[in-house]
Amino acid sequence: MSLRHVLSVTALALACAGVHAQPSSAVERERHGNRVSENLPEIPAELLERLNRYQNTRGAGLGGWTREGCLLIGTRFAETVQAHRVCQPLGMREQLTFYREPVGSLGTAPAGADGFVFGKDVGGNEFWQLYWFDLASRETTLLTDGKSRNDSPLFSHDGKQLAYSSTLRNGKDTDVWVMDLATRKPRTVVTEGGSWSASDFSPDGKQLLVIKYVSASESYPGVVDLQTGKLQMFPVDGGKAAINHFRFSRDGRAVYYVSDEPIDGKPQEFATLRRHEPASGKFEVLSAGIPWDVDNLALAADGRHLALVSNEDGIGKLRVLALPEHREVALPELPVGVIGGVEFSPDGRRIALSINTATSPSDVYVIDLAPAKLSRWTRSEVGGLDASKFVAPSLVRYPTFDRVDGRPRTIPAFYYKPANTAAGKKLPVVVQIHGGPEAQSMPSFSATAQFLANELGVAVLVPNVRGSSGYGRTYLGLDNAEKREDSVKDIGALLDWIAQQPELDAQRVGVYGGSYGGYMVLSSLMHYSDRIRAGVDVVGISDFTTFLNNTESYRRDLRRAEYGDERVPEMKAVFDRISPLKNAGKIRSPLFVAQGKNDPRVPYTEAEQIVKAVRDNGQPVWFLMFDDEGHGFQKKANSDFFGAATMRFWLEHLIGDSGK
Questions:
Q1: Which residues pair with 526 in a beta bridge?
Q2: What GO molecular-function term can you cite, just one (predicted)?
C-alpha cells in the first residue's frame, strides 16, 4: 500500500498539529546540533520509513582513467561523495578518500604520474582547496594555500604541470595559476582581472589555452606562452560570443573549440564544434548538421579520435569522429539520458562516460571502439526499490504569453505523471524550477520526483522557462535585466496549461526551486498566490540588491552581467519593483524556506529577511538552516531531513483536499 493511503490527511493532522501563522517575534528557534529550525512540526515515523529507501539511492560520476587502466569515480556510501576506484566492469568499488566533507573536481594524472587531484571545502563555503592523492603511498598532500578559492584543475599532457583557477592574489579576481608538480611551486600566468580558467596545455607543455568567462553568452579565449608569460587573445567574431571547450589538436597545429560565433556573417543560435589552424587560416565547422548545442568535447591522447556530446532537447547524444578526416565512427546503442564526463583511455582505444537516465541514477560505462561494444562498470543502488516502477517523464510544450513568427512561444517542460491514477481523480502538482538562471532541467534521475509520483500521487512538472540554456542564444537572453519577470510569466502560463489538463488539479499546485529557482518560487507566489497553494524556497534570492551587495566578491560582477547592476539607478528601480522582499505582503500562501549558513553565493541573510517579512504579514512560514552546509545540502543526514520536512510540508499544505 502506498504512503498516500497510509497517511490520510486526517491521521496526519492528529499526529502532528498544524502550524499557525505567528509574527517573527513569537517564533521559537530550535537547535539540534548543526540544524536550526522554526515552525517545523514533527515528521511522522511512517513518512521517514517510506522515504528512507528513496533517500538511499546513489549515483556514480566519472573522475578519469588511472595509469593501470582502472576508473576513478565519485560516489557516496556514507554521508558524502568520496573518491573510489573500479578496475573492471561491475567490479568492487574501492573507497580511497574518507572525509566528512564531499570531494569534487576529481582528475587523474596522465602519463607517468600515479595519482589524482581532488577539491574539498569546509561546510559548503566553496573555498575549495586542491589536494594530490598518491595511489602508491595512499598519502594526501595539500597543494594550495588553505585559504583562497581554488578549482578547475588541469594536468599537462606529460603530467608534470597542473593549471588551476584561484582567488589567492586579491580575493576578488579568479586568476590562472600553474604549478610545477615536481617542486610544488605555483606561479600566476593570467592576472588580467575577472574570472579565468585553463582549457588545455599544448602537447609540448609550453602553451596554455585559457578563457575569460563573463556570462553564459559571453566568454573570451586566449593562449599563454608559459615561457615568456605573454597572453595573446583570440579575435571573437561578432565581438561577443559563448566560447568554451578549447583543445589543442594532438599535433599542436590546430585548435578545436565550441562556439556560437557568427559564420560567414550569419548569426548562430547554437554552439557548434569548430576547428581552426592559425598558421594556414583553415577553418571548419564540424557539427553544422546538429541543430543543438555541443556541450562536451574530448580528444584521445593518440590523436586518432575526438568525442563530442550534443544536448538535444535535454538528451545527450555522443558522437565519435576519426581523425584527421573527421569521419563519424559507429558506436553501440547507449541508454537514453544525460551524458556527463567523457574521457578516452590512455591508449585511446576506449571511452569512459557517465550516463544518467530518468529511471536510473548516474553510472559509468565504457565503450570499446574497435568492436563498438558497451560495458557497464558501475551499477548504483536504488534503495532496494523496483526500478521498473519508476516514472519516466514525457516532454511537453505549453504556450506562453508572447509570440514568435506570429505563433505563441512554447516552453518545454518534463512531466512526471503518476501511474495507476484512479479514474476521475485529479492530481496535485509540484512545479520544480531550476536555478542558474542559465541552467537547464534535464530528464535525469530524481528520487524526489519518483517519491512524489509513486508514493504521494503527485504530478511533477519541470519547466525550462526562458533564460534556460540549451534552446539557443535568443532564448537564453529573454530574461536578462529588466526582462527578469518575463520568466515568471512563463510560470503563469504553465498554471493556465495545468488548468486545461483534465487529470491535474489546478487548485492544488505547489512550486519548488533552489537558488535562482528559489527567487522564481518567491516571485511566483508574489504574482500567483491565488493560484499556487504553497511554495518551497531553497537557498533563494529574495532581493537582488541585497543579494548582489552580499554575495562573495569573486562572483559579484559575474552575477551583475546576468541580473543587472544595482549601482545603476534605473536597474535599482527595477530590482525594487520585482523584489519579493519588498512585495512580501503579496505572498499569501504557506512558505517553506531552507538555507545553508555558509552559502557564499546566496547569503543566508536572503532567507532570514524573507522569512521575517512574510511572517510579519501574517503568513505561516517554515524555516530550516544547516550550519555545516552552503549552497545546497551535500551531507546525507542533512539532505534526508530536508527531504522529509519538504514531504511533510506538501502533505499538510498541498495534498489535502481543503483550500488554503
A1: none
A2: hydrolase activity
Q: Cell for 168?
A: 589567492
CB within 8 Å of 158: residues ≥ 6 apart: 110, 111, 112, 205
Whole-angstrom distance, CA of residue 220 vs CA of residue 489: 33
CB 74 within 8 A of CB 54: no
Residue 521 grid cell: 518560487
pLDDT averaged per 10 residues in sequence order, the chain, 660 residues: 45 43 74 96 92 93 94 94 97 96 96 90 96 96 97 96 97 97 96 97 97 94 96 93 95 95 94 94 94 96 96 96 96 95 95 95 96 96 90 96 95 94 89 93 94 96 96 93 92 98 97 97 97 98 95 91 90 94 96 97 97 95 97 94 97 73
Using left for φ > 0, alpha for ψ between -120 and 50, and beta otherwise, residue 123 falls in left
User: Quick one: cell of 447?
Assistant: 528520487
Contact 64, 108 (CB under 8 A): yes
Residue 201 and residue 223 in contact, taking contact as beta carbons nearer than 8 Å? no
What is the value of pTM for the model shown?
0.93
Q: Extract the C-alpha cell encoding 120.
A: 574539498
Q: What is the spatial distance between Cα 468 and Cα 440, in angstroms, rounded to a whole number? A: 5
Element (H or E) spanning 577, and its range?
Answer: helix 569-578
SS3 63: strand
Phi/psi for 142 (5° steps) reads -75, 125
Strands lying side by side in the sheet with 427-433: 29-32, 35-38, 621-626, 591-596, 534-538, 504-514, 427-433, 459-463, 407-416, 394-404
| Alpha-carbon span 360 to 271, nearest angstrom | 29
The three state secondary structure string of 479-506 is CCHHHCCHHHHHHHHHHHHHHCCCCEEE
Q: Cα(447)–Cα(153) distance, rounded to whole angstroms?
A: 31
Contact 99, 120 (CB under 8 A): yes
Q: Do 347 and 69 form a contact (C-beta atoms < 8 A)?
A: no
**Cα distance between residue 51 and residue 254, in whole Å:** 53
399 preceded by a cis bond (ω within 30 of 0) = no
Q: How many residues does the structure list for the chain?
A: 660
- What is the per-residue DSSP string for 267-321? --SS-EEEEE-TTT--EEES-TT--SEEEEEEE-TTSSEEEEEEEETTEEEEEEE
Q: What is the pLDDT of residue 329?
A: 96
Task: Write the single-letter amino acid at 581.
Answer: L
Contacts within 8 Å (CB) and 24+ apart, 248-252:
248/200, 248/201, 248/202, 248/203, 248/207, 248/209, 249/275, 249/299, 249/303, 249/323, 250/203, 250/299, 250/300, 250/301, 250/302, 250/303, 251/203, 251/303, 252/202, 252/203, 252/204
Q: Cell 526562458, residue?
A: 466
User: Grid coordinates representing 225?
Assistant: 606562452
In which order are the strands placed within the sheet that holds 161-166? 150-155, 161-166, 175-180, 185-190
Question: What architecture is domain 3-55+393-412+422-437+463-484+506-655?
Answer: 3-Layer(aba) Sandwich (3.40)
